[in-house]
Amino acid sequence: MTSGQLLTFGGVVVLGAMSPGPDFAVVLRRSALAGRAHGMAAAVGVTAGVFAWVIAAATGVAALVAATPVAFTVIKLVGAGYLAYLGVNALRSAGRSGDLRSQPDPAGVETGLWGAFRDGLLCNALNPKAAIFFVALLPQFLPAGSGLVPLLTLSVIAVVITATWFLTVANLVAAARRVFFRPATRRLIDGMSGVVLIGLGVRLAFTTR
Prior knowledge:
This protein is an all-alpha fold and 209 residues long. It contains nine helices and no strands.
C-alpha cells in the first residue's frame, strides 16, 4: 500500500467516525452526565467495536453477516433494541428532578467504567451498518492475499482515528461538565439523547441490506 492509499483510508475512517450516530450519542451522554473517565471508557468501547469489525471485514466474517439475511436481521434487531433500551433509560432520567450532584446515578444507568465501556462496545458491535461500511471499504485497500502486515496497518489506523476522535469528544464535553450539573440542563441532555437513541434504534430496525 502506498502512503496515498493509507491517507485516503484514514480520511474515509475520519468521516465515518465523525458522522452523527449512536456511538456519538453514547459518548456524549456519558461524558456530560457521568464525567471524563466514563466518557473515555465509552470511547474505548466504541474503538473496540471498530477494531472487531475491521478484523471481521478482513477475514470475511462481516461480509457473511451483511450477505446473510438471518444474521443481519438478528444483529440489527438486537442492536435496535439495545439503543431503545438506552434511550428509554435516558428519558426516565429526564423525568426525575433535583440537582445532578445529589443523584448517585446521574447518567440514569450504572455509571461504572465497565458499564460505560459496555455501552460503547455494544452500540458499535451490534450495528450491522458498521459491518457494511468496512466490507465496502477494506477490499479497496486490502487486496486478496496481501498478508498480515497490511491488515494490521489498516486496523491500527482505524483504531487510532476512532479512539482519537471519541476521546477528544469525551474530554471536551467533560471539561464543561459543571454546566450539566444544572437540573434543567441535565433534563435537556437526557431528553434529547433519549429521543436520539430511540430514533436511531427505530432507524436501525428498518435498515435493509
